[in-house]
Amino acid sequence: MISHLGFLKELGKFHENLRLGFYTKIFENKPADSVDWSKYKVAYYTAKRDIDWGYLVLPTLLITLVLGGLGAYKLRKL
After folding, report:
1. Please, which residues have CB within 8 angstroms of residue 45's CB and are 6 or more apart in sequence?
2. What was the pLDDT predicted at 72?
3. Which residue ranges traverse the bilayer (predicted)?
4. Is there a contact between 14 and 43 (Cβ–Cβ < 8 Å)?
5. Contacts of 50 by beta carbon, 8 Å cutoff, 6+ apart
6. Kindly report the CA angle at 40 between 19 and 3, in degrees rounded to 5?
7. Rg (CA), the chain
8. 57 within 8 A of 65, measured Cβ to Cβ
9. Secondary structure (3-state) at 47
10. The predicted structure's pLDDT at residue 74
11. Of 11, 39, 53, 78, whose Cβ has the fewest other Cβ atoms within 10 Å?
12. Quick one: pLDDT at residue 38?
C-alpha cells in the first residue's frame, strides 16, 4: 500500500511537469509539430524501500525466547 501511494505521488508530479510544459503551447494555439518530442523520454518509477530489519525481526526473536524459556522451565520440572 505504501509503495502504491508513493507511486501515485510521483505520478502526480510527473503529470504536473508535463502539463506545465504543454499549457503554454496549447493556449497559444501552436501546432503539435512545434513541440520538440525528442526531449520527452519514458520515465520509470522505482520504489524506495527503507527496511528496518530490527523492527521486523524483534517480535519473532522475542516470541522465540519466551517460548524457549517456558519450554526449558517445563522440562526442568519433569
Report:
1. 7, 10, 11
2. 95
3. 53-73
4. yes
5. none
6. 70
7. 28
8. no
9. coil
10. 93
11. 78
12. 85
Q: Which residues, in sequence order, are CB contacts of 37 under 8 Å at separation 6+?
A: none
Residue 57 backbone phi and psi in degrees, to 5: -90, -25
> Measured between alpha carbons, how far apart are the two ends of the chain, in Å?
49
Residue with cell 520504489: 47
Q: Can you tell me the distance from the alpha carbon of 26 to that of 19, in angstroms, rounded to the nearest whole number?
A: 10
Task: Using alpha carbons only, give the angle 72, 73, 78 rounded to the nearest 5 degrees.
Answer: 95
**If the chain, 78 residues long, is cut into consecutive pieces of 10 residues, what is the mean pLDDT of each piece?**
86 90 81 81 84 91 97 91
Q: Grid cell 508535463 — which residue?
A: 18
CA angle 58, 53, 71 (to 5 degrees): 25
